[in-house]
Amino acid sequence: MLANLKMWLHKEPPGRIIVVSFAIIILTGSLLLCLPACTRPGKSTSYLDALFTAGSATCVTGLTLFDTYRHWTTLGQVFILMLIQVGGLGLVTFTTGFTLLMHKKLGLRNMELAVENTNGDSGDIGSLVRMILKFTFSCEGIGALILMIRFLPQMGAHGIWVSVFLAVSAYCNAGFDILGSVMENGNLIPYAADPLVCLTIDMLIIVGGLGFVVIADICHSKLQPTLHGQHRHSLGFHSRIVLSMAILLIILGTIVFMVLEYKNTLASLPNFGAKLNAALLQSVSPRTAGFASVDLSKEYDFTKIFTVLLMFIGAAPGSTGGGIKTTTMLVLLCCVHSVLRGQPEAIFHHRRIDKFTVYRALAICGVGMLVVLIVTGIITSTTPNVNGVDALYEATSAFGTVGLTAGVTPRLSPISRIAIILTMYIGRVGPVSLGLAVSIKHGHIHTDSVLPEGKIIVG
Amino acid sequence: MLANLKMWLHKEPPGRIIVVSFAIIILTGSLLLCLPACTRPGKSTSYLDALFTAGSATCVTGLTLFDTYRHWTTLGQVFILMLIQVGGLGLVTFTTGFTLLMHKKLGLRNMELAVENTNGDSGDIGSLVRMILKFTFSCEGIGALILMIRFLPQMGAHGIWVSVFLAVSAYCNAGFDILGSVMENGNLIPYAADPLVCLTIDMLIIVGGLGFVVIADICHSKLQPTLHGQHRHSLGFHSRIVLSMAILLIILGTIVFMVLEYKNTLASLPNFGAKLNAALLQSVSPRTAGFASVDLSKEYDFTKIFTVLLMFIGAAPGSTGGGIKTTTMLVLLCCVHSVLRGQPEAIFHHRRIDKFTVYRALAICGVGMLVVLIVTGIITSTTPNVNGVDALYEATSAFGTVGLTAGVTPRLSPISRIAIILTMYIGRVGPVSLGLAVSIKHGHIHTDSVLPEGKIIVG
Ligand SMILES: [K+]
Ligand SMILES: [K+]
């Protein structure tokens, strides 16, 4: 059987291996969460509930049917956190790292997998994976230590677990919390005006959402030379794009939230600083962490629609975040801009963007929209008393593996729950990877490049 | 001054001439509608109201602030119908046709304009324009005669005017009606179960929405050979695509409307046939005629979202309809499908689609979405008690020059009204044509095709 598995691993395209392994992890997680020891006394968990929770954790989404703290025992919470860590680091990066630690050596196959998952170039994969693990655990550790400043005095020893859980959940852009002892389903609402908690979580989310390629580039080009007093290099093309998009979207989001919600959901906060703190979190979080420090169900419809946009765009590729990815959005915008200027190529900063990159970006965005639209339809037509915007919000939240909800999740019909589980899965493995995994026959790629051209008139 | 104008016409790119002429027609129309003789006694028309109506008529949108019959005198209605006919035929086709009839000869400049507007190939423009005019007036004439069967007995002599108005409005995909004597703001609701009226209007909308290139192809390849007993040719690539998309979308729309609204807005209709009649109209009309035979404000949210999709897609290029156009949508879908199959080209029916066509389609769709989103934001944030879905519906309706409304138009704030006027204009002249008209400096097109390639990792 092991021989069969080995043969399968060598024959299948890497994308399909990712798709299958993710499914296996989710199913294993759902069985673990079904154990009676995972559910608190007096509560009950159906298999669909467990599957939903395991899917939400593995896909680092954060949509929950119950308050995580009040429904699950510590064992259940530990399982959920493990699923988050495995799913967040990227199943494959994790297994590659594991293989590396065990064998101190990477086979060609594993290397391909690691490249596929981090979207990076295939330089020195071994050191990259070691760096990923070291960097991840360092960030989560530092984050947890800072959070303990708040939670240790407040909750005693339990505060350590809360801090660790929150730090991992934030770095992995998962959005799960176990703050139910403070306020049921309250997420970060009790800490909306607390800069220590919110800024730490903001930082963890942002760093986790940049992607390892960018972090490696920053370490290699800026941090290490600075530490060793050497000449610093300039960042790569990809890193500069990712950083610019992150900064741009964070600032834009904060301003829009401040303007739209100042007299609505932000009104109850004591002063401008607290409002800014909350607006910053509501700008960082939809891409694609899913923490909330205000009551999202009370947001204006247009704030929700704007959030849907941020959720759909998501974070950088090869990061712990989801969505169609900031670079995908940028490629599409560049293409639109070039056409409007009458240029024959998609151009960004005096560089031509390859046709296939544009096509791929278009496919990711197109399939994403289609999935979101179908799921919105399923939710509105099977769940009573849900308006269109809230259903759209929920569907996008699942596709972007965000986890924000306008309060719809616990009310979802069984069919909608299954649709949401599938959407989280599609969103996490990537619609195009999934499509390719399903359609390509054993790594064979069509290359009908000598077809005659067909003229189609558009718009 | 005439010399200056001639010089301008020769120097500017055709796109910019279209953009400017459309603006001039709208402004002229708004001044005409401001005449006191256009407004019925006891009613009043502000300049913004007149501008909105002129814009809506010229852009063949059909969004109205008032009931057309009850607010405007017959003179006002005549002006509106003239604006519809000019806008619907395409300003340029009309002026080209006019020039042709006057001079019996087309200069090179006019030829370019006609090609730009019909998106056709530049074969025999003269006969094309003559055919356009003949065909348009024949269709409208036949439509009006059929409609008289219903309206002459019902309204006497006034029924002739009602029939002509409706036929022109339907063929031009304008969506205006003067049925206010039967039911205020009722549009076709009183005739929802009447197949004579509805099917006639369906046919006019569909034929008008196919585009003249396709109609010419059908005449040339099928009708004329059949009439003369000759061998029939197969239709061109473009025609086959347009026809397939039209049939596909009409059938899909009818089924979806039947399923979603059977027990909601269709419930009051007496039998299955009447419901099917109404569902067919609600499938044909959002692309982009804008007639309604049910109360759209009572539709389920998901039906509205589905309608938004149909409105956004619209009709065929070079037709009287709006939207991003069915072919644009098809190109995008083909590109997505090819990427998912691992193909390196966008392929449709064994034909390769050119890169620039894909880019252009992407730009049209992208700008359209951006415009719709911004306008949705303006409507929700300046108009009280409008939910997000209705605002999205209204914004898309304006962009697609559809004219369907969930009852929001008359309540729009002044800022929203101006935004809607601009959106109708952008939707009618086409976002990319407008962008090119603004950005290209005197016909000079950038051709930086030797730029280095920049690698961007997407999704
Ligand atoms: K999340
Ligand atoms: K219309």
From TrEMBL, chains A, B:
This is Cation transport protein. It comes from the Bacteria. The chain crosses the membrane at residues 15-35, 47-66, 78-101, 155-176, 196-220, 241-260, 305-336, 357-379. It is found in: Cell membrane. Keywords: Cell membrane, Ion transport, Membrane, Transmembrane, Transmembrane helix, Transport. It comes from Caproicibacterium lactatifermentans. InterPro entries: Cat_transpt. It is a multi-pass membrane protein.
